[in-house]
Amino acid sequence: MRVFGLNWRIIRALLSSQYAHMLEYRAEIALWALSGVLPFIMLSLWSGSAARAELGLDGVALDRYFLSAFLVRQFSVVWVVYAFEEDALLGRLSPYLIQPLHPLWRYVAGHLGEQLTRLPFAALIAALFFVIQPQAFWVPSLGGFVLAWIATWMAFAIAFLLQSLIASLCFWSEKATALERLLFLPFLFFSGLLAPLTAFPPAVRAWVQWTPFPYLIDFPARVLSGDPVNLAAGFAAQLGWVLLLLPLVLLLWRAGVRRYSAMGA
Amino acid sequence: MRDVSFAIAPGEMVGFLGANGAGKTTTLKMLCGLIHPSAGEVLVAGHRPQRRHPDFLRRITLVMGQKQQLIWDLPPMDSLRVNAAVYGIPDRVASRRIAELSDLLELGEELTRPVRKLSLGQRMKAELLAALLHEPEVLFLDEPTLGLDVNAQMRVRQFLADYNRRTGATVLLTSHYMADITALCPRVMLIHQGQLFHDGALDRLASRLAPERHVRLELEQPAPAEAFTGLGQLDRLENCEVNLRVDPAALTSVVAQILERFEVRDLEVNDPPIDQLIGELFRQGSL
Amino acid sequence: MGRYWRTLRRFWGTALATQLEYQANALIELLAVSFSLGGSLLLLSLFFGPGRELGGWSWNQALMVQGFYTVFDGMSSTWLRPNLGSIVTHVREGTLDFVLLKPIDSQFWVSLRTFTPAGLSEVALGLGLAGWGAHQSGVVFTPAVLITVLVMLMVGGVILYSLWFLIAATSIWFVKTWNATEVLRALLASGRYPIEAYPAPLRLLFTLVLPVAFLTTVPAEVLLGRVSLPLLALGMVLATGFFTAARAFWMFALRHYTSASS
Questions:
Q1: Between chains, do C48 and A175 touch, taking CB under 8 Å as contact?
Q2: Total number of domains constituting chain A
């Protein structure tokens, strides 16, 4: 039986081949993991600043928040637009398009394989963090961990769909990746990667909560670090964004493929 | 590469043959100074290439069929202007040379269209123009016709022959296409397993590789294999079709004997085609 | 020397022409730059409030640091990223051979081959922001101060270029690890804030090992007139050292490149 064109055999084959592929690039992926140190730099700033009292996150809680933000980011990084653009430019796309499997699944599998490759490096950085800040060490409850895991994957799903939306524009525009920058900037500032959302003025916060960004880092990070957070509202928002973006992506993709095949490129 | 030594006179056109990985490109790169020889000495146009002295670099050029130096998004003309500045060619001189070379290469408005919109053949011709703008005395060409259609291959070949005649430039060329070598290079070097296997004319290479001649027979009646003992090496025997390899010295007597012994419907004597010979050599991997 | 000037003019002429092929990109870049600056200022403002400072820096003084960071960020996207990012492409596609066979210095070629004019707007915005912050902090722009700032900005530029170049040059060995420059960029982001705002170990790291301090904090301190001569001298020594190291490393990398028989 196939659901969305997938069955267990396809899933297993896709995941294992993509994992093997990503292992080949482990040095590169290790560097990517290392380039995610921004939350730690921000943590060192916030810890020493007079403004930390405003955050509502005290002492150890702030350490845990930024470590969680780092980890959530590690496992929700999305690069589908770059991979897709390269495939489109190099003409690798056409064979994918005639296969009885939606090409986006291939990229999903690629991302999951990359996350698995990243796991040891991210764990190493986290371990190093605990060596430097032993008082921040904590083990989330099993329930909390599972919830954080789900929240992180939902964050990944939203980020993936957002970027796929831009990737679909590759069918029309030669350089859709430039648009990705415009999406990345609000993500950077409003996701909670650089500052917990509680740091922002209430007006900004009220506005930002209607965007997908807080559900990409801030919400999952708070679940993981065990901060008090409205679980129902957070998950509902995540689900809402997925349900909103999914049909959009599929529609735009289909229109793009139609255009692509009409051009005979 | 071991024990490869040769000298090339100014104005010669020399073709390099060899299997993939035999050391053709390495030799070429060594000659233009991109790879240092681990031992031995290379002297090109009076310079040691590996120093890549500017005076030396001004006198050579390298064209690689599978790599391009032209700026992808811009017309070739922009790349040509960059090269003119890099080689310190005054604008007036550069314009004159571009006009001359584009005439020879049959390039016109292609020079003002973005490179990404040019066909492979047009692009290669523009690459040649860019590589020759500074009037180099020594041309290193690595697979200059790779991937081109037969027409474009011929055009490029024609141009190289003309250029060599007009300027007296030395040309060293590697190619997968035997036609390039046979058309352009009176002298051929075959590099095999890092060693110089042959250095000389192409037909002499053929006779070295395959001393025998090929005799093809069509008989009226099928004959058993034993009937051909003593005539030559039997390659094929199918009903009335027979292929034999024969020592050239014995050819006349063998043909006479065949005509005597069998009823022959058709008889043909051939030199084996050179590219087939070389292909066989590379497949065998050893001599 | 004249030949190098003429070549540079041609390099940038073609770069400009390339950009004109993609005008929409420039527009997006402009939009991104303004977004980015707006976001950075918002983020910076979070650290301040009535009577609050960041590492002993007032809001207006911190604006100068942020301004200089923007200048260098603009410099990276105008100059460093497009050029040094292409070293890895040259290695991967084998076109470095063409560069090495040109009768011109190869480091000159790979460092200055192109530029992205869209990033210049960021440089201008950064200078404007730094100037505004300085003005609000009551800085008096004497010629001596301006010259010193200019010199220190150049010192910062040389340090940034050399660090970036050192990392980019490793792609001669490890074609795949070009995203080491991404790590560098992530660490450079620490230069958005005054160095005094960081804990002591990081301060040491950002002064001596990865001298981000000399890019943003030191020029701002020059404007504020509270920088000591030895620190300026240290900056120049570091800049010279890093540049020499970058040059030597490039020569070493090329020797490796040309001795590997491929």
A1: no
A2: 1
